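To the wet lab folks,

You asked to see what we're planning to order before we commit. Fair enough. Below is the target structure as tokens, and below that is the sequence we designed to fit it. If anything looks off to you, flag it before the synthesis order goes out.
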């Protein structure tokens, strides 16, 4: 009798627990239903701006937008909010389109009070790696500052000795650190190395922002290319040396007709010696690629001379001289110059043949003519191949060969 009574009681308790959990779950579904529609609408708006669709061919909604705010513990012992570029989830937006409360840096979590918009916001970037990477970071910062109405500040970088950067406040190392470790700074993380993150278009209106990442995509700044090219104007000293190198290349063509100078960047050196690059998918273009690219320009233009900048002079002379002899053209080599002088000379050439890497990318971007790039970088299925989207990295009108 006692056993039967216990079992009956247990069954009733299980049903009670079931309904206790079911009712809040149904209420949550009811509340989130309009939220899902708002999220889908928000995706559609952003994706349409990029000329994309938020639906697959079967009509199933497909979340591709990368937006989301989260709190991280500290940066230099100062609490900050970090923009991670996480995928959209079922979280509500406020009337301004920002994610609510915990996910919104402009809403106080306890009081839900919206912080006032600041009219004097700054933006900066964490400088890392070498020259080509610096240029991507600064270009993204300049464009983001323009789109969001911000003032740009920058930490010490060799770029300040190479380019005539305008309207950017340069701080020394201690000034930059003291400024950016205050509590009113957010960190915007680009995510993957060379995959465009459209969320940079609309930054929060109540905080200063530090851009973190590599931002290796033309989509961040190409809409204002004239301004970017103007910012990356080489200082007079660099320009003069580059003009001398270009003049020497033109003299190699013994003709009264104007010469067509095609710059070639050949990267060897570190990328050949360090096995890290091979493992990560940094395949180096071989002589066949340069033969195809040089043949393309030789057939299309007259009085062509190829001007080569390289950190593998022996390989380049052994291979490109043979190609030049086959094509019946001239090759000159830039030697004894600084990296910025070589980049300036390549940028001044009529057309450009790229190798791989950001240095080569920027020499091509600053060049006004046609560009041929090595389509074998990064290697498909490699680690770098998962971090670089070719449509975001290479401009659509550049010519890929391998």
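Sequence we intend to order:
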């Amino acid at each position: 009798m006692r056993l039967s009574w216990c079992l009956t009681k247990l069954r009733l308790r299980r049903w009670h627990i079931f309904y206790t959990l079911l009712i809040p779950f149904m209420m949550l579904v009811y509340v989130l239903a309009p939220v899902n529609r708002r999220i889908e609408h928000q995706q559609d708006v952003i994706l349409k701006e990029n000329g994309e669709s938020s639906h697959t061919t079967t009509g199933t909604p497909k979340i591709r937008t990368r937006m989301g705010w989260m709190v991280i513990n500290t940066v230099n012992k100062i609490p900050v909010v970090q923009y991670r570029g996480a995928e959209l989830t079922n979280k509500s937006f406020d009337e301004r389109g920002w994610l609510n409360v915990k996910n919104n840096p402009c809403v106080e979590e306890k009081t839900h009070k919206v912080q006032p918009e600041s009219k004097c916001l700054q933006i900066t970037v964490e400088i890392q790696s070498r020259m080509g990477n610096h240029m991507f970071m600064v270009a993204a910062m300049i464009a983001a500052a323009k789109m969001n109405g911000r003032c740009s500040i920058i930490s010490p970088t060799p770029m300040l000795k190479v380019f005539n950067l305008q309207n950017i406040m340069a701080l020394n190392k201690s000034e930059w650190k003291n400024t950016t470790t205050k509590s009113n700074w957010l960190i915007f993380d680009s995510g993957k190395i060379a995959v465009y993150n459209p969320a940079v278009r609309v930054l929060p209106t109540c905080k200063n922002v530090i851009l973190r990442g590599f931002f290796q995509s033309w989509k961040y700044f190409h809409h204002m290319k004239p301004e970017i090219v103007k910012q990356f104007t080489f200082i007079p000293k660099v320009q003069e040396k580059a003009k001398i190198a270009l003049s020497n290349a033109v003299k190699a063509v013994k003709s009264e007709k104007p010469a067509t100078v095609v710059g070639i960047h050949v990267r060897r050196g570190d990328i050949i010696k360090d096995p890290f690059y091979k493992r990560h998918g940094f395949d180096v273009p071989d002589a066949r690629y340069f033969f195809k690219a040089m043949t393309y320009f030789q057939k299309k233009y007259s009085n062509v001379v190829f001007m080569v900048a390289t950190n593998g002079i022996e390989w380049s002379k052994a291979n490109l001289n043979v190609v030049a002899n086959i094509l019946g053209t001239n090759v000159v080599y830039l030697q004894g110059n600084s990296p910025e002088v070589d980049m300036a000379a390549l940028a001044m050439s009529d057309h450009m043949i790229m190798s791989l890497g950001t240095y080569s990318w920027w020499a091509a971007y600053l060049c006004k003519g046609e560009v041929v790039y090595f389509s074998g970088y990064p290697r498909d299925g490699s680690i770098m191949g998962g971090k670089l989207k070719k449509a975001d990295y290479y401009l659509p009108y550049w010519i890929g060969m391998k």
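Structural context that might help your review: Residues 31-104 have pLDDT under 50 and may be disordered. The radius of gyration is 27 Å.

Thanks,
Computational group
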